[in-house]
Write a structure and sequence with these properties.
Elements (H helix, E strand, L loop, with lengths): L4 H17 L1 H7 L2 E3 L6 E7 L2 E10 L2 E10 L6 H22 L1
Antiparallel strand pairs: 1-2, 2-3, 3-4
Helix pairs in contact: 1-2
Amino acid sequence: MGIPPKAVKKVYRQLELLKKYGVNFLTHSGTMKKLHGYDIYEMIIDFDKVCYRIFCVIRKAVCWLLHIFVKKSPHTPQREIDTAVKRARDLDYQLALAVN
């Protein structure tokens, strides 16, 4: 089961807004927030009573998408946060290798 085509369009629209206006625009509009205690942002996309979340990080003025999932409870599951944290660490490692 994948994401329905109309939900994909909404996700794509949010990513286009991110590309065009940046993180500050989305945080002020309430579409994106920083996870408390982490250097990770959560993009919030609600469609047809389903809550999609995209975790991302900002590195050198670039927004890197790390993880997307369907949020089924009021609290963000720790395993989803752990996945994003691991991917952020892997990204930082790859970026450090690219500099050298």
